[in-house]
Structures are given as C-alpha cells and as structure tokens.
Design brief:
This protein is α+β, with helices and mostly antiparallel strands and about 300 residues long. Helix content is about 35%, strand content about 20%. It contains 12 helices and 10 strands. The strands form 4 sheets. It has a 3-stranded antiparallel sheet with strand order 3-6-7. A 3-stranded antiparallel sheet has the order 8-9-10. A two-stranded antiparallel sheet has the order 1-2. Strand 4 and strand 5 form a beta hairpin. Helix 3 packs antiparallel against helix 5, helix 4 crosses helix 5 and helix 7 packs parallel to helix 10.
Length: about 300
C-alpha cells in the first residue's frame, strides 16, 4: 500500500470512529428548560396560524416546568411529545387556560418521569368549534336546589333553572348540550355516581386536574360522552385519542399514529408488611404513590 493511500485510509477511519461521530453529533440540551428553548422552530411549524408565534407556547411551557412538581424531571422525549401535541392541536399547555395539562407520571420500568397530556374541557370546547357544523355547546353543573328535569327518547328534553346563592346545595348532576348548524342537537346527563365511576377508571384519578379542578373535569367527562354522538373534526378526533396518554415520538408522523402513545397508570402503594417493605416495588420512596407511564401489554 502506498504512503498516500495509507494516509487516506487512516484519515477515513478516523472520520468514522465513534469518538468523531459523537463529536460531530449536535449536543443534547442539558435541561428541559434548554430543551424548550431549542424546540421553538418545531413548535412554530406545528402551530395553527391563528395561534401566533411559538414564543407564547414556549413561555407557558417554561412556567409549567417551574410550577408543576417533578415536571422538570421528565424525559425530553415525552415532554417534547406532549408539547408538540398541544401545538398541533392549538391548545395552550398550562393549567391557567384549562385547555390542557402536562402531568408527570413515574415510569417504574425506566425509573424516570414521563409527561402525560390531559386535555381540559375548555380545550375540548375549543376544538368542537372548529367543526363546520358546530352551532353551540354548553356544559353545566346541577345543584340540589336547582329545578332540573330531563328525558331521553324520541322527543328528548332538558330543563334547568339554577338556584341562587346558598340555596344551591351540593352538585347532583353534570350535563353537556350541543347544537348543530343543520338543526340537530344532542345532550348527555351524568349524575355524581356516573362521574365518580368514570373518574375511578382514569389513569390520573387522584392527580392533576381531577384533584385541583374536579368540577371542570366532571363537565369535560360529559363532553367526551357527548362527542360520541356528534360528528368530530380531525383535530377533535386526535385530541380524544391522545387525551391522558404519553407520547414519546415528537415527529409529525407520531401525531397521526395513536399506536405510538403509551397510556399512563397510577402506581398503587403496596400494603406494609414490615419496616423494610418499600411503599411501591422498585420505586424510590420519594416517588411512591405517583402515577406511572406503563408499557403497552405484550401481544398475545
């Protein structure tokens, strides 16, 4: 082998070495705060035109990182997936607006937090209005002192006259009513027991908005049940499919593939059987009782 050829081969080998490839690879942001800053171009491309620029979404996300406990400890992939889903749907990812919530869920297998996206009832209403047939959507809480009657069947009807002040009493029912531009309408009524049964099946039944905004989540539950009877826009269909899930793929393709979304589940504390018994198996003490992002069940 000539000297020149040997030098070229050596140079080529060095250029393909793992050390060189690692050096040429873009550095991964060290923190989620830096990661959000680096995501602005992708957020800008995903946002609907009516949402304006990515700066507002990025600022809200940074505020949530400071406000929500353990959110800053979540994986970058799951945080990016949740943020990109919010951006593509045109929803603000913060609890103030009530459109969407970013919740940290503990993944026992990976021993890390992941972000679960929970869409609020204000977000559901916002997406409903994007359908060309949308003419009206109302959702209300019924109290003990209210005059309230409803009837399903061939001639459904609903009447609600709210009480005032201290005469209200405790909630008894929640309902949602939709009106369509073609003259159609539909409503769904749930009593407190119905809402509780649905809440207990939720992966985040004791965390996030179910804990801090129960009334809003109860009305959102009515809206979700009502949407089963109504035509849905593409964005609303995606929102229903991605609600209360963990998304690890932040690419545009990941937004359209529900199979890539991982449902979260709550880690239940184990019953104490001795002083050395951990509260939750394989989970550090400080994480016990927090929700878990679980892997999908293996195919049979």
């Amino acid at each position: 082998m000539s000297t020149n050829l040997a030098e070229r081969v050596a140079t080529r080998a060095r250029s393909h070495s793992p050390a060189r490839q690692t050096a040429n690879r873009p550095a991964q942001p060290a923190t989620l705060v830096q990661f959000v800053q680096s995501m602005r171009p992708e957020i800008e491309r995903a946002l609907p035109t009516h949402m304006g620029g990515a700066d507002r979404i990025a600022r809200i996300a940074l505020t949530e990182l400071r406000r929500v406990e353990h959110l800053v400890e979540c994986t970058q992939d799951s945080f990016a997936g949740a943020l990109m889903t919010c951006s593509a749907l045109g929803l603000e990812p913060g609890g103030v607006s009530g459109e969407a919530y970013l919740l940290p869920f503990w993944n026992k297998r990976a021993r890390s937090y992941e972000v679960q996206l929970v869409i609020g009832y204000q977000g559901m209403i916002k997406l409903f209005w994007q359908h060309p047939l949308a003419a009206g959507l109302d959702t209300h809480t019924v109290y003990e002192g209210d005059e309230f009657e409803y009837e399903y069947g061939l001639e459904p009807r609903l009447t609600h006259r709210p009480a005032r002040g201290s005469a209200k009493g405790e909630p008894t029912h929640y309902y949602a009513v939709a009106r369509l531009a073609n003259g159609g309408s539909a409503f769904v009524v749930l009593d407190v027991e119905d809402v509780e049964a649905i809440r207990k099946r939720s992966k985040a039944k004791d965390f996030g908005p179910w804990s801090t905004d129960y009334d809003a989540m109860a009305r959102k539950t009515c809206i979700r049940q009502l949407f089963k009877l109504l035509p849905k826009s593409a964005e609303l269909a995606r929102a229903v499919a991605h609600d209360e899930t963990v998304r690890r793929d932040s690419s545009p393709d990941g937004f359209d593939v529900p199979g890539e979304y991982i449902e979260g589940e709550v880690v239940e504390p184990a019953s104490a059987q001795g002083d050395e018994q951990a509260a939750v198996e394989d989970v550090p003490q400080e994480f016990s009782g927090w929700p878990e992002a679980a892997e999908p069940a293996a195919a049979a």
